[in-house]
Each structure stands twice: as C-alpha cells, then as structure tokens.
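Recall the central idea of this unit: under ordinary conditions, the amino acid sequence of a chain determines the structure it adopts. In this exercise we apply that idea directly, starting from the sequence alone.
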Amino acid sequence: MATRKELIDAVGTRYRSSPLGERSAILDEFVAITGYHRKHAIRLLAGPRTAPQKRRTSVRYGPAVREALRVLWEVSDRVCSKRLKVMIPTLLPALFRHGKLQEDSSLQAQLAAVSPATIDRLLAPVRLAAAKGRRRAAGLSSAVRRAVPIRTFGDWGDPSPGYVEVDFVAHSGPRLSGSFIQTLVLTDIATGWTECLPVLTRDGTLVIDAIAKARDLFPFPLLGVDFDNDSAFMNERVVKWCRESGLEVTRARAYRKNDQAWVEQKNGAIVRRLVGYGRFEGLESLQMLTRLYRAARVHTNLLQPSFKLRSKTRIGAKVVKQYHPPVTPAHRVLAHWTVSTDTKAALHQMAARADPVLLFAEIRSAQAELGRRVDRRGIDERPAEPSTTTMQPLDHGEHQAGELREIHRRPYKRRKPLPRRSRMLDGYVAQVRGWLSVEPGITAVDVLKRLQDITPTGTFTARHLRTVQRSLETWRAEAVRQWIDQCGWEAEPLEAVGDDRTS
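Accordingly, the structure predicted from this sequence is:
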C-alpha cells in the first residue's frame, strides 16, 4: 500500500498537468500496474487525496452498560459475545437478586438491544487486561494457504498410486539455529512407496528440484502432493510450479499431524532409523546422505514388507484396528490395476537386480561415514578417504551388547573433574583422629555421643551414625597403613630364615 500511495502521488501530478490526449495513455499504464478499476483510478489521479474523516464514536452505551457487560462476561465464564448475548436474559435476574447489579429498567433495555459486535467492542479493553496485555496470536493465514484446499485423513478414501504426502525431517541436532540439512520425504498413499531426498537448505527452489527428482524416482507418475503448512511448501513459487506441472496441491490442517499419518510414520520408521537425530551440515554430508538414501530406497521399497491399515473401529474407549497382510510397496504397485504394463516390467527388472546383502552393506558403510560427521561442520581441512562397501559378518555375541551404530547419539562424558563437596565431619577430623589415636578401639557410637556433647543440639543425630561409621572405618585403615610404614617391615628371603621355619 505504501508503494501504491507513492505511485499515486507521482503519477497524479503528471496526470493532472498533462493535456487531455495524454491522460488516457497515463491512465492505461496506471491501471495495468496497480490493477485498479478504471473509474477508481480516475478518482485517485484527478485530485489530491483527502484524509479520511475521523469516525465519531457512538455514545449510546455508557459506562454503566460497559460495567454490566463486564460482570455478565465474568459470571458467564468469559464466553464469546454471541453466546453471551443469548445468556443475558437468564443472568440478569440472578445478578439483580444477589446485588451484583442495581436493577434499572433503562439498563435492561440497553442490554437487551446490544449486539454481539458492540459487546466485542465494549469488552475489548477488559479482555486485553484479562490476557495480561497479550493479544491473541494471528492464525496461520495467507493468500497461498487460503488458495490451497485442505485434505484430512478421512478424505483420502482409496486413491490410485500417485498421490503422495510430503514432509520435511530436520537434521539439526539439539538446536535449530543456523543452516542444516533436511530430508524431503514423499510417501505414496496407495502403495506406501517412499522416496527420501536430502535438501541443503530450506529454499523454495531446492524444494522444487527435489520434487522434480522424486517424480523421476517413483515407478508411477505423480498425480498430487499433500503438504503441511510449512512456509517452505506454502509459498507462491512451489504451489505455482506444482500446479503448472499437473499436480493436484492440497494441505493438512495446522497442528493436526494425523492428517499426514502416512508420511509421519515413515519419518520415524525410515529416516530417523537410518540417520538418527544428529546434526548434519555441508555438501559432503549431503553427498553421504544421498548415497545412503540411494541404497535405502531399493532396500525399503522392494525388500521390506510393511503393514497397511484395512479398517479402524471404535468400541467405547477402545479402537480396534485391522491390517492387511504385510507386503512390500513394490508388491502393491505390481498388484494395482492402474499401473501400466511397462512400469510393472521395469519394476520386475529392478527387483531382479536388487541384492539384499550388498544393499545392507552399502547402508552400513554410508551410516559409518555419516557417523564421523555427526554434530560436526560439513567441511574438513583434509578430506577423508572414501570407504569401500564390504560385508563384514557379525561377530558371535556382538548382538548381546545391543545395536551400536556410528549415527547413534554418543554417550555423555564429563570432561571437568567433579569438585569435592564439603562434609559435616570436616571440622572435627583432627579431634576424632586424636580420640582414635588415644583409644584405637573406640566405637562409632561413642564417637557420635562425644560429637553430640561438644556440638550444638541437633547438629549430630542418630541418623548420622552410618556417616560416622564410614569415616571411622576409613581413618582406621589409614592409621594401620601408616603404622605399617613406620615399622619398616620388609620381606626376607626364606634362606635367611634357616631350617627352623617356625622361628
């Protein structure tokens, strides 16, 4: 709007000072730029813009009505104005009866005539004060979001292969600051076929490139994409490109992850299981992730069976779910009648070339390379040597120690020494040691009684007996070792003892 006002000021001066023949050309150019109606543009350019007159505030409802509405709003448990309007005839007699409001016929007439919009206007300062000065945050609303229709979990039905849900998985580690790699996950609704593509940054152009690459990887043509409300998807560039490419664009509801249940399940079952929760940055990490997903896509879609929900029935508080027998996504693609014969033939060839052992070795090798880059910068001073894919057999009993991968979170190790905490007996060490040197056989009970006699009441109680026992045991062991060192005992050879072994 600020730019339009500047344009009106600049063009209006030239428009008014130009002859009648040139005004038409100026008007045509101005309408083409701003999109205004021609008559409205003439009004704007013909004369100087006058400031809008200040609207006079109505004084029909005074402070008494405002205060009565405040009391009614509190008693109604702060409901909205439309519901409060209906409750006013019920609440007023009770408030008059309990003395919360003074009975007045004119006040009753005004409260009966007030509209919900006027109630909102009169209660605006009260509601703002009740919210501690914080206004309600604006919802997720933009022109692009409003132009994309919503599709919930129950709206899918039984679609044909080609309709995918799309989501981002962030590889940011414990902090979201800075730039980090994200994985774009696309899951087909009908078959469960999943493609994962790493993206260097959250940029609309990179999202378009990743979706275009995914269209080549899927064994069937894509028909539609279902996004969440992420700004990386809900922008004019991505939505426009998808529609121009012949893809139906829909979105999930805000803060309703169940609307994208298929892709949300794959985020954990595939991406987090393969990559973990570490932070990855830089081009070299992007290359390692690409290598990992290249092997994982064949292993997951052609070799790993997955369940698919058949029906879900609620019986009281219990939900009974029934699933189809587990089959691979490739099997569902081959069994679907809408998939072409050429696609099925290519998928058969792809399955014939897949080697489970080599694919698993490639996945573990890529995970080991990624493990060296977890929570580190993406560029090293000296590039690491590329590793070869070898299938190392598991050592016998290695599984008993649990699954250990390089990408898993490393255990926390404290680097700083732990400071010694002060103990209650620190101030009486010399005194207790003196008692111990005079009476080596003194017990912990006697030591505790003597400490109780020389200290204020409540300093040492019966609960401190075990503490005294442990300290006394340690001090006695130190005294014995010191006594042995002072005696200077040395082991003598057996020859020096002689034949009399009992001497």
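The CA atoms of residues 104 and 205 lie 67 Å apart.
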